[in-house]
Amino acid sequence: MTARRFVLALALAALASAAQVFAHHGGAAFDQSQTKTFVGTVTELQFANPHVLVFFDAKTTDGAVEQWSGWLTAPTKLARAGWTKKTLVPGDRIEVTGTPHKGGSHILQIRKLIAPDGKELPLFEN
Amino acid sequence: MRQDLIRGTVATAATLALAWGYLAQPHVVAAQGRGRAAGPAPAAKPSAPAPVRDLTGVWMKGRAPQGVPTFDGSTWTPGIQPPLTPLGLAEKAKNKPNNSGEFQLHETNDPVLTKCYPPGVPRVYFHPYPFEFIQTAKAVLQVFEYDHFMRRMWTDGRPIPTDPDPLWMGTSVGRWLNDATLEVVTVGFNEKTWIDRAGAPHSDQLKVTERFRRVNFDQLEVDVTMEDSKMLAKPWTAKGYFDLRPGWELGEISCSGDYLEWPGA
Q: Do A29 and B19 touch (CB under 8 A)?
């Protein structure tokens, strides 16, 4: 099994097991009892269907760099909230707060996102 | 490894997306303090009167008046089982919905989640995206953001077909009951779709009647009546409420691609 397939299998297995709870309670694949906040550097913004994904590097307390991703709602909804595919670009320094995935993957359901200019980005259409 | 991370994360998010429709339902989002929900409405600003025989605009599922049941989550009448016939019950037992949380994603046989089948009418309303009404001389077009589905509701006086071809979204004929209410009857469905997200079945005898009533400029009420002599012992009725979104434009939500990248697809 290649590394790519292994990562894919792990992610899908984690979500398959979490999906039932997720469907029951909405967002329950993520641990709603806690949030994590990172100051990170954007490596990629995927402004694509079905979900917008923010990839970023975050330093741990011991100085190591971890690769994380955060998922947002659909691009159409974010577009109506004012986003474009260039709202975040690689190198942007952001502050991300989200609920972590229960499976332990470096994936967040983003709840708050501070742009490089210090302003909070809208996460839902109004 | 970078690409692995991306692909793994994309696949994960895509898997989540299958349940996202539920998460993004207004009641769930509202539970997170970010959206709209049933319950006491804030002081409503006065709305202009409804225009005459005009539903034009972008509409999004909105708030039901307090105490009034509305379709929500995964079914038309939350907390109340659909009035299924014995055959309907037997067919429903074969269905393994995920949106109502009964089955895991790798177990579900939901035709939308596993095959990207069109959701059909009236299930299409459960997708948490807006739709737009466009009116022409011959028809009212209902365009859905989700997967670009479009219904042509013929308003040119043609009769409801008696032997329609089986279609995903059926054949729709509309007529104005008064200056604010459009009644649309839809028949001629194939049997590949469910009528809600909880696995309620229908047959080719399904007839859906929608009464769109624009109560004022900004609000639309919809009465939905589902009749099916094979699957429903009596008509299944429900209500929906939609708000006009003047500043919105429909974008692209496609079911293809990432939506299918999960086990069992």
A: yes
What are the domain boundaries of chain B? 51-253
| Residue B211 Cα, gap to closest chain A Cα (Å) | 27
Q: What topology does CATH give the domain A3-114? A: OB fold (Dihydrolipoamide Acetyltransferase, E2P) (2.40.50)
Give the residue from B2, B5, B110 with the most A CB atoms within 10 Å of its CB, the best one to mutate: B5
pLDDT tens figures, B41-89: 555 678 999 999 999 999 999 989 999 999 998 999 999 999 999 999 9
Contact (CB<8Å) B6/A51: no
Query: Measured between CB atoms, which of B11, B31, B99 is closest to A23?
Result: B99
Interface contact flag, B24 A50, Cβ < 8 Å:
no
Instruction: Determine whether the interchain pair A51/B248 forms a contact, defined as Cβ–Cβ distance below 8 Å.
Output: no
Which residue in B has a C-alpha nearest to residue A26's C-alpha? B23
Question: What does the pLDDT read at residue B37?
Answer: 40
Cβ-based contacts of B257 with chain A (< 8 Å)? 49
**Which CATH superfamily does the domain covering B51-253 fall into?**
Calycin beta-barrel core domain (2.40.128.20)
CB contact under 8 Å between A24 and B101, yes or no, is yes
Low-confidence stretches of chain B (pLDDT < 50) are: 1-39, 262-265
3-state secondary structure chain B: CHHHHHHHHHHHHHHHHHHHHHHCCHHHHHHCCCCCCCCCCCCCCCCCCCCCCCCCEEEEECCCCCCCCCCECCECCCCCCCCECHHHHHHHHHCCCCCCCCCCCCCCCCHHHHHCCCCCCCHHHHCCCCEEEEECCCEEEEEECECCCEEEEECCCCCCCCCCCCECCCEEEEEEEECCEEEEEEECECCCCCCCCCCCCCCCCCEEEEEEEECCCCEEEEEEEEECCCCECCCEEEEEEEEECCCCCCCCECCCHHHHCCCCC
Closest-CA residue of A relative to B262 is: A12
- Over its length of 126 residues, how does chain A's per-residue pLDDT go in tens digits? 444 444 444 444 444 333 332 332 235 567 889 999 999 999 999 998 878 999 999 988 888 999 999 989 999 999 999 999 999 999 999 999 999 988 888 999 999 999 999 999 999 987
